[in-house]
Write a structure and sequence with these properties.
Largest sheet: none
Radius of gyration: 14 Å
Shape: globular
Structural class: mainly alpha
Number of helices: 2
Order of helices and strands: HH
Strand content: under 5%
Length: 58
């Protein structure tokens, strides 16, 4: 079996209630799910720090 290019991994994230409420509101403001907003925040932080590998173009 081959790996999917866009494979995801599941994990538990413990986050305090105040931060979760802020993320939920931010997600709603930008018409994203809470999960999508967390992925967006992480993606932006990784790009800014130069830690995200560049995707190969075909």
């Amino acid at each position: 079996m081959s790996k999917k290019e866009n494979s995801t991994k599941n994990f538990v994230l413990r986050i305090d209630a105040e931060m979760m409420e802020a993320i939920e509101k931010w997600a709603a403001d930008e018409f994203r799910s809470t999960n999508g907003q967390i992925q967006y925040i992480l993606d932006q932080a990784l790009k800014k720090s130069g830690r995200l590998k560049k995707k190969k173009t075909e």
